């Protein structure tokens, strides 16, 4: 998914990957609960 955004240690992620995955999770929850997304 965002494997190319891993840090050199292979465990941590860069901020763009964290933002992407957080947005993906929140969007999924929002759509599941029929809550509109903020603009």
Describe this entry's structure for a reader:
- The protein has one helix spanning 15-32.
- The longest helix has 18 residues, at 15-32.
- By secondary structure, it is an all-alpha fold.
- The protein has 1 helix and no strands.
- The protein is elongated and about 40 Å long.
- The model has no long low-confidence stretch (mean pLDDT 89).
- The chain is 46% helix and 0% strand.
- It has one domain.
Any idea what the shape is? elongated
Compute the number of helices: 1
Task: Work out the helicity level.
Answer: 40-55%
Order of helices and strands: H
The number of E-state strands comes to 0
Radius of gyration: 13 Å
- By helix and strand content, what is the structural category? mainly alpha
Low-confidence stretches: none
Number of domains: 1
Largest sheet: none
Spatial separation of the terminal alpha carbons: 26 Å
Mean pLDDT: 89
A few lines on this structure:
The protein is mainly α and about 40 residues long. It has one helix spanning about 15-30. The longest helix is centred in the middle third of the chain and has 18 residues, at about 15-30.
């Amino acid at each position: 998914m965002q494997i190319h955004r891993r840090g050199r240690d292979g465990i941590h992620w860069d901020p763009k990957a964290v933002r992407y995955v957080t947005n993906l999770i929140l969007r999924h929850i929002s759509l599941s609960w029929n809550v509109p997304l903020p603009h």
